[in-house]
Specification:
heterodimer, A: mainly beta, 9% helix, 38% strand, B: alpha+beta, 2 domains, 6-stranded antiparallel sheet, 3-stranded antiparallel sheet, 8 helices
Chain lengths: 398, 360
Amino acid sequence: MKAAQRWLVSLLGAALLSACGGAPESGKDPAQVLREALLSAEPGSTVTIPEGHFTFDRSLSLGVNGVTLRGAGHDKSILDFAGQLAGAEGLLVAAEDVTLEGFAVLDAKGDAIKMNQCKNLVVRGVRTEWTGGPKSTNGAYGLYPVQCDGVLIEDSLAIGASDAGIYVGQSTNIIVRRNQVAFNVAGIEIENSTQADVYENTVVDNTGGILVFDLPDLPVQGGRQTRVFHNTVAHNNTANFAPEGNIVGTVPAGSGIMVNSNDDIEIFENTISDHQTAAVLVVSYLITGRPLDDPNYDPFPEQISIHHNTIEKSGYAPDSEPLIALKTAAQLPALPAIIWDGFVRPEQEGPVVCAHDNGELGTVALDAPNGFAAPDFSGAAFACTREALPPVALGGAE
Amino acid sequence: MRRAGLLALWVLLAGCGPSGPVREGPWPERLSELAVLAQAEGTLAPQAGFAYTLAHPLFSDYAWKYRTVSLPEGAAASVLTNDDTLAFPVGTIITKTFAFPQDAAGVVRTVAAEPLASPAAAFSLVGLRLMETRVLRHTASGWEAVSYQWNEAGTEAFYAPAGALVPLTTEGGERFPYLIPDKNQCAGCHETAMGTKILKPIGPKPGNLAAHGFADGTSQFEAWRAAGWVSAAEPATPWAAPGSGRAAEAHAYLDANCAHCHSDTGAADTAGLDLRITASELGRGRCKTPVAAGRGSGGRAYDVWPGRPEASILPFRLGHRDPGIMMPELGRSLVHEEGVALVEAWITAMDGDCAAGLSL
């Protein structure tokens, strides 16, 4: 009934508009219908994407608060950007309280779905994919919320991004759960963000599985308090295909979970199996050797807790020159599963990375600050425990 | 329902009659009904208000642009700072008409337009293909933006909130899609403080306006002051004149083409690259590593590597045509060769160096 009314109103509207002469009617191209529906959506309304395969030559965008964009399923409502000629993303969302649900964005020229400065974002059952497999010519990010407060990404698929499949940047209050993430450079990346829970995801065949990074020269810094737990992280051994120059280009292939310069991280009860470089890698930005001119930036990872993970098969063919050298020098068939580069602030007292109950595959502190001179396989550097971090509460959305 | 419809029809029909500019209310379907631009005898001219130009314009695939402002009766714009967009009063309508010189075969030419001769100057349409007229309207509830697309005959432009891609070919045989922005894409640039949903004009900044002089030697900004269109105690400080000097001219170019997103509040503040004319060298990307550039990095380590344009990301993205790489993200399909050359010259002349990067 409601839909019928709306039809009637728009018919009447068209009649009225043509009263002044009117433009030629736009065709009934469903892609155009969707574009116009997004442009004219009322706050709080639902825009429906029907089942079908729709092609676009320019990006779509949503700028209205409170809108739900709902398809018939990520395998049924397909938005195809392979022929895209304009726009730096497939779908750009610049609004609050938006829910995206049940559709796919394929082969966007840049990012698949970028959500800039959002609040209370929900992404559910959405697929972003580059269908030609992992390639450096694929777009950078699949699901890309940045500078958002309140992010829930669940039951979604992110495949083939040349940077990160799911990338949450400069945001707070984040839950990323039950997603399937494969064949990206970084599977899931939480960057310069605060309070994130990443759990029950299946993260396979990326270059690096789950990354928690804090990087300089960004307006939002001080990334901290992320929990990574109950994930299945397996054989993330795909050769790094990031375009050169990007920070994820420095991620060694075969990194299960990687922390770079972030603080207050708890990694627990994950299953992490078959990673040629390391199951868990904790590093400082300083190891990149990149210049650091940002006085506000803290390059040291601190308060890292890694416990009760099930780890299998790790470090057997590291994709990193210093790690290859270490493996050769130590005459090991495989490096320890948990690797920390050893950078600490000069006044640091006590350990910065705690690791316990992670099985028998061991740890190493690399002594990277001293040219990898005295790597410590004893586990002494990791001998500590930390209190559990509190869960993230999104205030209703979850 | 029927009565409401008839009422709406009456209101709309009443709107078809001649009257002053439509400064608020629903957008009319036809540009002519907005009553700000008059088309007669092969020219476009201000029906209300006056024409203006920018010494440093946004590059739009070499399209020629004709800009007008219509202020409400007796009102004037005011200056915030020399480098911020003028504060225009409620009721202001700004238009920008895009057209290409085109030959009989429908090939467009990528050549520069004649500079605007005076605020009263009309825009000769001879040999031009009209594409669109973008309109900014300052209503009581804020600025609104939309484009009107011209018909092929160039006789009328129609309200086009969904935008369009128009395939064109240059004299060099390059095919490119010309983008008429949809309403959200208008906001994508004009919402200069991301997340506020407040749109603003971008171009008319005192320094940029003042950098254009008319044939009689007066600065455009002084002409505005003399006419009472802008209330300002002081003349503006003009930005570098085009063709005048490398660094200052490049800074002006980057402001005009990039700073609506690359500021401390714009859509690109996520990247931490500030391209406003007021930015510092560090803000403007000196030795700055890429953040979320993806393919946009082009395998280069820094946004700006002094002395090494071939190793800097900024000219790489300005010189690219792939939507996943190019900057600006929207609003051009062709490369602005002269702009890239200007930016490269600025980087070449910069002193200093960046460290070579390593990795684990």
